[in-house]
């Protein structure tokens, strides 16, 4: 699905792939949130965010995204290709989502997509190859 400059793809049964290009306005933020909510099961939602170029998200976009997250028990978001500025924005959204949407929001940055998918698989993402729940043997998550 195309939302402005961005793309939202779903890999059944439980992964949302976001291709983020530029500004995430409120409409895009709402669409991202709706896709994540639609794919979230009892364990939450798995997201692979592929950032192409610079990413920006204003206060209205952050608010729209956080509102869309209400009711999702957990988000596991693997981000690939984010610049320092994009990472700062993502951390702001993460902190606000944890407090305001009352959701568990795990956010990890990766240099490449295979590493990101491996982490999502360990977190329990079936579309990434998990056959059961999260691998908690490492003590993370």
Write the layout of secondary structure elements.
Layout: E1 2-3, E2 6-11, E3 15-23, H1 26-39, E4 45-56, H2 59-69, E5 74-80, H3 84-101, E6 104-110, H4 113-123
Helix pairs in contact: 1-2, 2-3
Share of β-strand residues: 25-35%
Overall strand count: 6
Mean pLDDT: 84
Elements, N to C (H/E): EEEHEHEHEH
Class based on secondary structure composition and strand pairing? alpha/beta
Describe the fold and architecture.
- It contains four helices and six strands; from the N terminus they run E-E-E-H-E-H-E-H-E-H.
- Helix 1 packs parallel to helix 2 (59-69) and helix 2 packs across helix 3.
- With 141 residues, the protein is an alpha/beta fold.
- The protein has helices at residues 26-39, 59-69, 84-101, 113-123, and strands at 2-3, 6-11, 15-23, 45-56, 74-80, 104-110.
- Mean pLDDT is 84; it is low at 135-141.
- Strands 1-2-3-4-5-6 form a six-stranded mixed β-sheet, with helices on both faces.
Keywords:
globular; disordered C terminus; 141 residues; 38% helix; single chain
In short:
38% of the residues lie in helices and 30% in strands.
């Amino acid at each position: 699905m195309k939302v402005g400059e961005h793309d939202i793809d779903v890999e059944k049964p439980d992964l949302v792939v976001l291709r983020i290009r530029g500004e995430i306005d409120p409409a895009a933020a709402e669409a991202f949130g709706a896709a994540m909510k639609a794919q979230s099961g009892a364990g939450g939602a798995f997201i692979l965010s592929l950032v192409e170029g610079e990413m920006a998200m204003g206060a209205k976009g952050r608010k729209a995204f956080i509102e869309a997250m209400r009711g999702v028990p957990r988000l596991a978001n693997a981000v690939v290709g984010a610049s320092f500025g994009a990472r700062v924005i993502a951390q702001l959204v993460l902190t606000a989502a944890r407090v305001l949407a009352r959701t568990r929001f795990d956010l990890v940055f990766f240099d490449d997509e295979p590493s990101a998918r491996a982490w999502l698989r360990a977190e329990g993402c079936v579309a990434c190859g998990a056959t059961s729940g999260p691998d908690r043997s490492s003590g993370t998550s």
